[in-house]
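In practice, a research group might receive sequence data for several interacting partners and want a quick structural hypothesis before committing to experiments. The following worked case mirrors that situation: the sequences arrive first, and a predicted assembly follows.
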Amino acid sequence: MNVEVTPLPGIGVRKDFPLTAVRRRIGVVDRKDGTIDLIFTKIGDPDATTQIPMTEAEAGTLANLLGAPQLVGQLRSEHRDMAGVNTRQLPVSENSPYDGRTLGETRMRTRTKASIVAVMRAGQAMPAPGPDFVFTGGDVLIVVGTTDGLDSAANILKDG
Amino acid sequence: MNATTLAMIQLGAVFFGLGVLGRIAARIGMSPIPLYLVGGLVFGEGGFFGLHAADEFIHLASEIGVVLLLLLLGLEYSAAELFTGMRRSWMAGLLDLVLNTTPGVVVALLLGLGPTGALAMAGVTYISSSGIIAKVLNDLGRLGNRETPVILSILVFEDLAMAAYLPVLTAVLAGLGFVAGLQSLGIALLAVTVVLVVAFRYGKYVSAIVSSEDNEIFLLKLLGSALLVAGVASALQVSAAVGAFLLGIAISDTTAHNATKILEPLRDLFAAMFFVLFGLTTDPRSIPPVLGWAVLLAVITTVTKIATGWWAAAHARSSRLGRARAGAALVARGEFSIVIAGLAVSAGAVPEEFAALATTYVLLMASLGPIVARVVEPVLRIVTRQPKPELDTADE
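A structural hypothesis for the assembly, expressed as tokens:
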């Protein structure tokens, strides 16, 4: 992907790239103070962009939403030949009982036979998290298991 | 009532009044600078009230305000950004310089403000307000636009030009003879060059010296070094403001970011005092005679700034709308015009009409700038009969 990087002196850096299907550009303005704006060019005025300011947490969540499906898709295709095994992305919401607690405390494997193979945080995949891994609201878990197991895993993350 | 008590009451009233003015400005979406100036005019010499008990404090506070304004301007940029910005924009920057200093010089000469007044007025009409412009670009959601880097690099050029201009102005205002003037100018330009090179090569050491984990220590070291550098620069006739600006450039990366965060409220406080003081020292009765000239100057320099931005954006192959937006964004003048005018007035080297002209001009341009930036798009669409673009939810 050809990402264009443009310095914005005093403000930060603009990074964007063209979307082939719609002939628009999409990207971010990375500000010096650490906040991020999502930008995409407007219809009818390719010089102007729609600018959406995001907090760090919001940007991280969006990055997870965009990054997790790829990982899930990859794992699914690897498990294609194994009947009954599935991969799903499950969120740890801000009001989940496990926000701020460790992976071990969920006793996920014992209760559901499903295993957490990766955690998406701020757009980064953290593979094979151990029992000491501490969840925070906004994390997206990549979980592998049977369909039933995944359903109960989703309930555990939601209601404890 | 003793003097301290009276000073406290007067200062309290001034601060509180400024707070109320600032709130009004925020409500109607304008820069608070014009309101601070008006506040000063109302309280000052020939205004409704006189404030004398707090005079000394306000004077010192306003000096610190200038130092902080320039220090934070320097903190905004890294030396690398200055160099690349300069390389990109020197043609537009020169056009900007010529188009926007000329009206100031001509009007000052026509008004009989003398060559010193003309030199100072050139700076007042030339320099756009990077504070107002950055805020307007953000408020209008134009950070991602194609013309925005063009606008910002012109601002970079202006700020560098100011680093060279302020020592010249200081030397002229000090009324040094030709040789002494050249000498102090030489020292100044040498200092500017040395600091830029040091900042570019060894910026991280400068940052390491002022940096600290502890906020209190950090603030003390920052403020201390800024005042020290400003004082030494001033002693060398280089202008305290330039010293602070260069220190700001030399501090880089996370240290610069933390410094900005910690100093911003202080700058706002002291800079407000500076604007008030400028208003205070201007006699409102001297404004009506120069009002016509100020309006004329405002109209001309609005057109010249729009022309500058239009040309620069066209050079970057922006659309007509983008060119218009770039031009309109540059119109606002504000804090730095007042810094320049303040230097001239406090040196006592310019006639009284100068202060009146500068105040009125900045009053007009600081209020007009954001409005022009906002309305340029709809106006151009009406003029060229272009329909408003369809809603952004539609697919292509």
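Before designing any experiment, note the following. The longest helix of chain A spans residues 56-78. The longest strand of chain A covers residues 45-54.
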